[in-house]
Specification:
alpha/beta, 5 strands, 37% helix
């Protein structure tokens, strides 16, 4: 069997040490060849007008993963016209890699909502969904979260959930700290911090 691919989706506004820690933990636990960062274009649930420009988010993510041999960036959602649904991305990647295991990584904050995503049932057909919770977030899928899965499928889904990783960092808090003039040197890679400072982002 060909080596697997882990897909880590997000807005990455900005990417921080917590994102990188999750990606490293997933790569080790799943024994995959690569973790692909799926940087979101225009997420259907976000206010496009208030989002940081895609070019800036991409530039920061490139700086964050530079030099990490097992990390790559997949920018197809940036290039897609209109709202970007996860199921479309998974269909494309499955068609490109029909024989490779594909793991779709989600944060624990999505455990309660993924069942309401566009064509949610199809997501579980296209990839193995792996939850990566943080302390205080849900760690198990309930029957009402994924009603289209059988009890046996839900049991397997919960068994695949990765142990919670504690990192007291969030992109929202980073943006707020920058806006208030605070330091983020302990929360993002140095190159990302320099980019934010030099461009005046989040000010």
């Amino acid at each position: 069997m060909e080596p697997g691919i882990a897909l880590f989706g997000g807005v990455f506004d900005p990417p921080h040490h917590g994102h990188l820690a999750l990606a490293r933990a997933a790569a080790e636990a799943l024994e995959v060849e690569t973790v692909r960062f799926l940087i979101a274009g225009t997420p259907p649930h976000k206010d496009a007008e208030s989002a940081t420009p895609a070019a800036a988010r991409l530039a920061m993510l490139e700086l964050a993963v530079f030099g990490a041999p097992n990390f790559t960036i997949d920018r197809r959602e940036l290039d897609r016209i209109g709202p970007s649904y996860t199921v479309l991305t998974l269909e494309e990647i499955r068609a490109e890699s029909p024989n490779r295991p594909i793991y779709f990584l989600i944060g624990g904050d999505n455990i309660r909502s993924i069942g309401r995503w566009y064509q949610a049932e199809r997501l579980f057909d296209l990839a193995t969904v792996i939850a990566m919770p943080r302390p205080g977030e849900p760690t198990e899928f309930r029957a009402e979260d994924v009603p289209f899965l059988s009890p046996e499928e839900r049991l397997a889904l919960n068994a695949a959930t990765l142990p919670a990783i504690d990192f007291p960092i969030s992109s929202t808090a980073i943006r707020e700290r920058v806006a208030a003039g605070g330091s983020i040197s302990d929360q993002v890679p140095p190159a990302v911090e320099a980019y934010i400072r030099e461009t005046g982002l989040y000010r």
